[in-house]
């Protein structure tokens, strides 16, 4: 790109440049037909004819994917066009900061992190219901606006349930640090891959660090596929236990054990918020921390636990009791399974009520039997 400002793209009159990347430039422009200020995202089509066609098709797919999703937390696309060797799309102007910059700027209060994740999960649920999988959910693709609203951006590699751009065999699309294991392995995947990615984003918001890291892509992929993730409360003890459970389920390696839908993920996040707000307020009282940037949801009474979680006698198991998951109804969705000596994270999996009841009975029966045997030996 040269330093000369283009006059227009289609009917949109360019005002100024507001950003640029590897593939193109973003401009602020005005739509004279309705006197509306828009952002013009452009991509320069270069390379061979095949490469040009591929990049244009990918760019057009982004416009088609996001353009068909009218949701408050998804960026709005107004138009698409081409000027010579430049393809462009007109979209709403977003005044705010990328979530990536907020995390780097010193962390995000837990209640705000949960609120952001819930809004993103609700937007993903809306997209999934309409056959769109984002495939690249990461902090750099989430914008937090000045008024607290959240917007998901960049549907450039989104998969639509319709003919369109085809991915070449062996081509890895997405950001490895936030990619679901099945996606990284090149296996078939669905919206649950976005749930895993959002789980990674939530973990990073809560702790300030991503759960997977590596010096190179192979090492990062190995961590993603095999590494155990410590609960968020291991890094920040003031976090309530409910977040350990939610994160553990979102980050299950097996998609069958993950949240079945982004809507279900959002519901748990919303339900956990009163407990998170309470823990945050208590921590703020102790340390004099600042308050939220996003307005909290109305207060709701936490669920009263009816049965404590029965866990293995293993000091690596850091899941503490949580009102959200300590009763039979909660455990029917999220069973807590014992760990072996090689694991260091809570193993949480969705399950039917009958399975949880039988498991609990078996554990208790084993405990009672062991106690009885020990007593018999001591008395004989």
Describe the structure.
By secondary structure, this protein is α+β, with helices and mostly antiparallel strands. The protein has 3 domains: 8-91, 2-Layer Sandwich (Phosphorylase Kinase, domain 1); 96-302, Transferase(Phosphotransferase), domain 1 (Orthogonal Bundle), CATH 1.10.510; 308-380, no CATH class. 38% of the residues lie in helices and 16% in strands. The protein is built from 11 helices and 13 strands. The protein has helices at 49-67, 99-104, 110-129, 181-184, 192-207, 217-226, 232-235, 241-250, 262-287, 328-331, 353-379, and strands at residues 8-9, 12-20, 25-31, 36-44, 77-83, 86-91, 96-98, 132-133, 142-145, 150-152, 159-160, 335-337, 347-349. The strands form 4 sheets. Strands 1-2-3-4-6-5 form a 6-stranded antiparallel beta sheet, covered by helices on one side. A 3-stranded antiparallel beta sheet has the order 7-9-10. A hairpin with a 4-residue loop joins strand 3 (25-31) and strand 4 (36-44). The longest helix has 27 residues, at 353-379. It is globular. Residues 162-172, 289-318, 335-365 and 373-380 have low confidence and may be disordered.
Blueprint (SSEs and pairs):
Elements: E1 8-9, E2 12-20, E3 25-31, E4 36-44, H1 49-67, E5 77-83, E6 86-91, E7 96-98, H2 99-104, H3 110-129, E8 132-133, E9 142-145, E10 150-152, E11 159-160, H4 181-184, H5 192-207, H6 217-226, H7 232-235, H8 241-250, H9 262-287, H10 328-331, E12 335-337, E13 347-349, H11 353-379
Antiparallel strand pairs: 1-2, 2-3, 3-4, 4-6, 5-6, 7-9, 8-11, 9-10, 12-13
Helix pairs in contact: 3-5, 3-9, 8-9
């Amino acid at each position: 790109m040269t330093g000369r400002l283009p006059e227009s793209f289609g009917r949109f009159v360019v005002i100024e440049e507001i950003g640029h990347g590897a593939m193109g430039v973003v401009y602020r422009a005005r739509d004279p037909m309705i006197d509306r200020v828009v952002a013009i995202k452009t991509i320069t089509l270069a390379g061979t004819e095949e490469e040009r066609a591929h990049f244009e098709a990918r760019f057009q797919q982004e416009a088609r994917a996001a353009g068909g999703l009218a949701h408050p937390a998804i960026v709005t696309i107004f138009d698409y066009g081409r000027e010579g060797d430049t393809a462009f799309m007109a979209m709403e102007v977003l005044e705010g900061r990328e979530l990536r910059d907020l995390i780097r700027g010193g962390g995000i209060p837990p209640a705000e992190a949960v609120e952001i994740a819930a809004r993103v999960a609700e937007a993903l649920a809306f997209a999934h219901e309409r056959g769109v999988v984002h495939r690249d959910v990461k902090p750099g693709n989430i914008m937090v606006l000045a008024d607290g609203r959240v917007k998901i951006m960049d549907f450039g590699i989104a998969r639509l349930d319709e003919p369109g751009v085809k991915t070449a065999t062996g081509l890895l699309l997405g950001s490895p640090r936030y990619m679901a294991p099945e996606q990284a392995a090149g296996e078939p995947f669905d919206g649950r891959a976005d749930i895993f990615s959002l789980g990674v984003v939530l973990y990073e918001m809560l702790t300030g660090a991503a759960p997977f890291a590596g010096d190179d892509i192979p090492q990062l992929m190995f961590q993603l596929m095999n590494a155990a993730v410590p609960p968020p409360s291991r890094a920040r003890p003031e976090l309530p236990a409910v977040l350990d459970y939610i994160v553990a389920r979102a980050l299950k390696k097996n998609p069958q054990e993950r949240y079945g839908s982004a809507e279900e993920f959002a519901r748990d996040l919303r339900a956990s918020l009163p407990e998170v707000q309470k823990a945050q307020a208590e921590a703020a009282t102790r340390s004099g921390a600042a308050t939220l940037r996003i307005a909290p949801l109305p207060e709701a009474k936490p669920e009263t636990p009816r049965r404590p979680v029965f866990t293995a006698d293993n000091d690596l198991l850091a899941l503490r009791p949580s009102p959200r998951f300590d009763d039979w109804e909660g455990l029917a969705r999220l069973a807590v399974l014992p760990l072996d000596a090689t694991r260091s994270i809570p193993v949480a999996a969705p399950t039917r009520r009958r399975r949880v009841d039988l498991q609990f009975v078996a554990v208790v029966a084993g405990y009672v039997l062991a106690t009885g045997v020990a007593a018999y030996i001591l008395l004989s």
